[in-house]
Predict the 3D structure of the following.
Amino acid sequence: MQSTRLGQFTRLISTTRQRLADIEHQSQVTEASPYVYHVKLNKPKKRNTFTMDLWKESRKIFDDLSVNPKCRSIVVSGEGKSFCAGIDLQEGFGQLMEVFENDQMDAARKGRFMKEFIATAQDGYTALESLKDPEPLLQHGIIMERKKSCPQY
């Protein structure tokens, strides 16, 4: 019985690590110390602005960390001078304008695209907010939450 649980736990850790390893585009995830993971936004030239890809990555990262039994706390930071300058308006509006200027799409499909666009972006934000067990610790040096399991922060 115990070896079965250990096997399930090992598979879960392995799967979580693999899913986290697949995410390497605009953020970095590392195990900073036992039970503490560090998520770093890694677009310093653009001041870590959020794009659709980063929203999707954020959702996947925080969903994976929320079920990882080795994760009790999460440190969130940004590479460079700024934690995050908000939405990358150039990229975001570019995508939206392509859809709205497309005469081949009817208004209903444009509306559905807009709804899905907003929902995807919102999911990226709420993934961090809705964490139940691991709590966010730091945000670019400013303490948000502090857990007893991580006194070094």
Q: What stands out?
A: DSSP finds four helices and five strands in the chain. Residues 107-129 form the longest helix (23 residues).
